[in-house]
Q: What sequence folds into this?
């Protein structure tokens, strides 16, 4: 959009923001981010500003749709002071926005990053899997040795998303090979997550979003698919979304498994608020895993958090649009799809965020649909 077009926006402008060039570097990620920003602009009655340009002066209120969770320093530089200024979240330290916070360190003298909270690990211990975060090869090996005594161990690169950057080791030798191949600086600065690996896995999405005066909360189930390289990755989500907070969501009487997932996500969120002063978010999403451990016991646990645009953002926005269009509507169902390779045309009523060949990911189609229900009121 040209500068004179933006200038006509009396209330404000919505801009997509990519703080780090390596984030959302692919064409499909940039296309989705701009698409999300465009639809949020319509919800707010703002102008579309495209990608944020720090050299430009924007009229009115500037609302950001960042590609990542922002730190307090980044937010302050942009003039972001609360959840009404962005679609996403703000944390006091970069590691708080990654998978690293979900697990404690392996011993009191283990290497850590600035701002690490011992209290957080204790508060979420009962709602996450057995695991550790390590910032040093020796600490990682110690953690793996402890966890391998109870079964296979899943390793996670803390900044990866969509199922990328994960592997499973079953013995100390395999763990040593992984550590030998790791970038020491990446490990020291950002860490590595090690946790027990569950079988027969199902992942719930639990979340809440707020844009302007609209608030919506949801539960759903993620789908896996195979990408153009043959790897298992995120393939979409099917969400049930309620107008309002989690009390409105619970009023829909979800299954006991989903109720537990909502409770666990709520406890995780409360611990973040208690342990990391200055945190706030207008978009909170929690992955809650259901599966069997090595002893065959059914387990439910929070895997990670997301305070930025993510796989569920298409359905989140579709639900907000439905609530905006019909103030009496209480709930909706919405789905997003990520289809690799050749695929049929999306449904006529779908919102298509990407449908072409990405230079890095290959042929890919990403779209969202809002489902018709007999009585969504």
A:
């Amino acid at each position: 959009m040209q500068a004179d077009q933006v200038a006509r926006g009396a209330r404000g402008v919505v801009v997509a923001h990519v703080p780090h060039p390596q984030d959302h570097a692919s064409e499909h990620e940039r296309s989705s981010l701009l698409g999300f920003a465009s639809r949020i602009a319509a919800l707010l009655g703002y102008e579309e500003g495209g990608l944020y340009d720090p050299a430009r002066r924007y009229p009115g209120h500037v609302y950001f749709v960042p590609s990542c969770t922002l730190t307090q320093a980044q937010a302050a530089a942009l003039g972001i002071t609360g959840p009404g200024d962005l679609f996403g979240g703000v944390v006091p330290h970069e590691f708080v926005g990654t998978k690293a916070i979900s697990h404690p360190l392996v011993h009191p003298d283990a290497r850590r990053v600035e701002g690490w909270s011992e209290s957080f690990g204790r508060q979420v211990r009962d709602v996450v899997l057995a695991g550790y975060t390590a910032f040093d090869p020796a600490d990682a090996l110690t953690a793996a040795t402890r966890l391998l005594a109870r079964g296979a161990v899943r390793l996670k690169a803390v900044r990866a998303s969509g199922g990328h950057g994960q592997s499973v080791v079953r013995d100390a030798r395999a763990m040593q090979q992984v550590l030998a191949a790791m970038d020491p600086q990446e490990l020291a600065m950002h860490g590595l997550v090690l946790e027990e690996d569950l079988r027969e896995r199902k992942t719930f999405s639990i979340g809440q979003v707020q844009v302007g005066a609209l608030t919506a909360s949801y539960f759903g189930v993620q789908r896996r698919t195979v990408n153009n390289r043959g790897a298992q990755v995120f393939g979409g989500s099917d969400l049930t979304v309620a107008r309002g907070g989690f009390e409105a969501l619970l009023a829909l009487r979800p299954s006991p498994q989903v109720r537990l997932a909502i409770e666990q996500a709520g406890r995780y969120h409360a611990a973040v608020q208690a342990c990391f002063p200055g945190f706030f978010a207008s978009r909170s999403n929690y992955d809650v895993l259901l599966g069997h451990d090595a002893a065959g016991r059914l387990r439910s646990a929070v895997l990670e958090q997301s305070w930025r645009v993510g796989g569920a953002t298409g359905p989140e926005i579709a639900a907000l649009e439905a609530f905006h269009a019909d103030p009496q509507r209480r709930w909706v169902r919405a789905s997003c799809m990520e289809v690799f390779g050749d695929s049929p045309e999306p449904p006529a009523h779908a919102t298509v965020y990407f449908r072409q060949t990405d230079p890095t990911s290959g042929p890919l189609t990403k779209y969202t649909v809002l489902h018709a229900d007999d009585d969504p009121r």
In short: The first strand starts at residue 12 and ends at 17. Residues 31 and 89 are 21 Å apart (CA to CA). The chain has ten helices and 18 strands. Residues 256-275 form the longest helix (20 residues).
